[in-house]
Amino acid sequence: MQTPIRLLPSLMQELQALADCRGQPYAHQSALLVRWETDRSNARADVAAMTDLLDTNFGIQSNVHVIPRRGQSFTWDLVAKILELRKTDHDLQEPTLFIFYYAGDAGVPMGDASLQPSLENEGSENFALENEGNYIPWSAINDALCSKGNKDSDVLVILDSPFGDRHNDLHGTTELLAACRGAHYRRMTPISFTLRIRHAVHSLKGDRKSMTMNDLFAALEDQHLRVRPFSTAPSGKSPILLTFKQETSPSTPVRVPPIPQNVIVKLTIPDTTDGLSSFRQAIQELPENMKVDVLAAYQAD
C-alpha cells in the first residue's frame, strides 16, 4: 500500500531560498530604505541609487518607506514597518542581515513636543530624523532595529545624513555608517554620501568576493572627503560581510558538464525548528559548481 504524502509548498519556498543563498554568510538579507515625502535634498534619487546598488552588487532586495507629507504617527508607522520586516529574521532562527538606510536631514531639536513621549525616558538623547519641523526620534528606531528575537540577526545602519554628537548605545545593532558625526551638518548635493558609497563599492568590487564595513570606510576615506564619515566598531561576534553577486562574463567560455547533468536526491530533514538549519548545513558542504534546486517538499503520513 502506497504511503500518502502531503505537499508543503511553503517549506519548499523556504528550502529554495536557503539553496539560493548557499555560500552566503546569511540565510536571509533584506533592506528598508527610508525618506521623507517632502524632502528637498534629493533623497528620492539617493534611495533609487541605493536600491540599485544593493540589488546589482549584492542581490539584496529593498523595501522603500516614504514618510508621508502629513500625519501624526510618523514614528509609529516607521517602527511598525521595521518590526514587520524584522519578523522574518526572528522567525528564521538562522544568520540574517537587515539593512536600515535613511536619506535626509537629521539633527537634535530641543524641547519639541512632537518628540514626546518617545524622549521622556531618562537618559535618552534627542537625535532625530527631521523634515520641515517633523521629527522621528532615533531612540525609537534603534529600539525597533534591536528588538529581541534572533540572536544571529545582524543589523547594518547606513545614514546619508549626520549622526548625532551624542547618541544612544546601539544595543544589538552590529554596525553603523553615517555621512558624518555632528548634528548641524546638512546633506551635500549633488554628490551625496550615497553616491560616494556607490563609487567606493565599485572600487572595491574587482576580484573580491566580499567586503566588510571597514573595507568600505577605508575606501570612503581614500576619496579625501571634506567631511569625514562616521562609523561604529562591530558590536557582534564578527563584522558584517557583504558578498558580491557572482556573474559569469560573456567572454568566459562555458564548460559543458558531462552527462548526466542532473541528479535527484531525496533528503530527509527533522520535523523540528532545526530542520532548516540541517538542510542549510548539508548543502553548504557541496562544491561551488553544484547548483541546488528544490523540486518538492512533502510530509509522509
Could you describe the 3D structure shown?
The chain has 301 residues and is α/β, with parallel strands linked by helices. It has two domains: 1-22 and 253-301, no CATH class; 25-243, 3-Layer(aba) Sandwich (Rossmann fold). It is built from seven helices and 13 strands. The protein has helices at 9-20, 43-58, 74-92, 138-145, 193-205, 213-221, 275-284, and strands spanning 5-7, 28-36, 62-67, 96-103, 105-107, 128-131, 134-137, 153-163, 175-181, 210-212, 230-231, 241-243, 298-300. The strands form four sheets. The protein has a six-stranded mixed beta sheet, with helices on both faces. Strands 5-6-7 form a three-stranded antiparallel beta sheet. Helix 1 (9-20) runs parallel beside helix 7, helix 3 (74-92) packs parallel to helix 4 (138-145) and helix 5 packs across helix 6 (213-221). It is globular.
How would you describe this structure in keywords?
301 residues; alpha/beta; 6-stranded mixed β-sheet; 2 domains; 13 strands; Rossmann fold
Structural class determined from secondary elements: alpha/beta
If strands are numbered along the chain, what order do they take across the biggest sheet? 3-2-4-8-9-11
Total count of helical runs of at least 4 residues: 7
Shape: globular
In percent, how helical is the residue content? 25-40%
Radius of gyration: 22 Å
Largest sheet: 6 strands, mixed
The CATH class name of the largest domain reads Alpha Beta
The CATH architecture term of the largest domain is 3-Layer(aba) Sandwich
How many domains?
A: 2
CATH domain topology of the largest domain = Rossmann fold
C-alpha termini separation: 13 Å
Count the E strands.
13
Low-pLDDT runs: 112-124
- The SSE string, one letter per element, is EHEHEHEEEEHEEHEHEEHE
